[in-house]
Amino acid sequence: MANPMADENRRFHGSDEKNPFEAMSERFDRAAKLLGLDDDLYAVMRVPSREIKVYIPVRMDTGHIQIFEGFRVQHNFARGPAKGGIRYAPDVSLDEVKALSAWMTWKCAVVNVPFGGGKGGIICNPQQMSLGELERMTRRYTAELIDFIGPDKDVPAPDMNTNEQTMAWIMDTYSMHARHTVTAVVTGKPVALGGSLGRREATGRGVLFCVNEAIKRFDLTPETTSVVVQGSGNVGGIGAELMHAQGYKVIAISDVGGGIHNPDGLDIPNVLDFLQKNRTLEGYPGAEQVSNKDLLEIECDVLAPCATENQITSENANRIRCKILAEGANGPTTPKADQILHDNGVFVIPDILANAGGVTVSYFEWVQDRMGYFWSEAEVNARLEDKMVASFNELVHYADKHNVDSRTAAYMLAIDRVAYDTRMRGIYA
Predict the structure, then answer these.
(1) Residue 74 maps to which CATH number?
(2) Measured on CA atoms in the order 236, 82, 112, 375, is the torsion positive or negative?
(3) Beta strand extents in 141-219 (DSSP E only)
């Protein structure tokens, strides 16, 4: 019998435009309603499978114990083990981690890799911690999660303020408990410890492959396409460098402190070299200094926000002047901004596709670890391109078939795939 409250429950009453979990839930609800998702599947898929909160005692360099709060959220296991990064930051919250774990479920489904979504985080300021303190915190966090992670359960990866070294510590701690080396427990490891060639560049490369397909819709070529990139890390910096190498005219780029703009184009390898040497873009010669806020509003063909969440909101969406929005970051656009961008004719490559290159090559790394045979970088990149191009075309076809915008189509496609697997497996209740 239908639930009389179903329609009411499906109208998400979000109050905070910038709350990431509310943003994810609102988009999920819209897609679920358009799909006609039945009430039982809706109830199961809308919430995480598991939320884990741990308190991590760490002996600091002073000799005193400090307690850190950590999370791991495992959103869905219908298609395989949970998969997702671990971030270290002062503003990590459970809502953020819940949203990111759900996004990972939809991201993995959009590119059709056999994982569900997971995400983790620790509330800390890694910039104020020594390497020894970070190692002790990471190892204790891993030990607290030892029963919940593993190659067939949940496979963590690097995220904000974590890296190859962090993953090596997690792998070693897990392996010590297992009493044998388990390389497949994490991805994003050093290549010498079972990491995949091409993993560091994968997210930025995935953005490039999506943009390559998107510009065809506007009869553009790389040489005739201007690009603005917010962010200069593993996604923005690498994405900008790869686009520059393919002939795109990158006219602006930023770091956390601000950006630079030259309408005639920037020499991106030179910019990144300057940034590495000076730790800031301030003072870069031959370019105008711009704030991160103003950088988003520069007129261009492709705008790639590759920094953090909530950069494009209802407050500035009307001032976004691009043809294509390629979301290299997770959640850079709020739901209220979506409608404004759609009305203004902006083609959005949604985050759950645009930045899925990272999890795709993480999947390749997991596969290589489990079979003990590793591919060349050229093979990894070719497989990534095949995945990203096929997924982009599936998404566009799905959007046209259902007459919806690209973000809604991405959620519908992902939810449809997860729902099918959940329905076929049945709900053990």
Answers:
(1) 3.40.50.10860
(2) positive
(3) 154-158
Q: How many domains does the chain have?
A: 2
In this structure, the answer to whether residues 207 and 252 fall within a common structural domain is yes
State whether 163 and 63 are in the same domain.
Answer: yes
Which CATH number is 235's domain given? 3.40.50.720
* Token digits of residue 336: 């209220």
236 in the same domain as 99: no
Task: Identify the residue whose tokens are 């390898």.
Answer: 269
Q: Determine, yes or no, domain membership for 418.
A: no
In this predicted structure, what is the pLDDT of residue 312? Answer: 95
Residue 349 lies in a domain: yes
> What are all long-range contacts of 369-376, with beta carbons under 8 Å and residues at least 24 apart?
369/151, 369/183, 369/184, 369/194, 370/151, 370/184, 374/196, 374/197, 375/196, 375/197, 376/197
Residue 4 has pLDDT above 50, yes or no: no
Is 105 inside a domain boundary?
A: yes
DSSP-derived secondary structure for 303-346: EEE-S-S--B-TTTGGG---SEEE--SSS-B-HHHHHHHHHTTP
Extract long-range pairs of 13-17: CB within 8 Å, 24+ residues apart. Answer: 14/335, 17/310, 17/313, 17/314, 17/334, 17/335, 17/336
The per-residue pLDDT for range 133-181, each reduced to its tens digit, is 999 999 999 999 999 999 999 999 999 899 999 999 999 999 999 999 9
Does the structure show a pLDDT above 50 at 288?
Answer: yes
Going by C-alpha positions, the residue among 178, 141, 138, 146 that lies closest to residue 162 is 138
pTM tops 0.85, yes or no: yes
Which residue, 291, 319, 354, sits at the end of a domain? 354
> In a 10 Å sphere around its CB, with 0-12 CB exposed, 13-18 middle and 19+ buried, how is residue 5 labelled?
exposed
Give catalytic residues, as residue numbers: 119
Domain that holds residue 95: 48-181
Name the amino acid, one letter, at 212: N
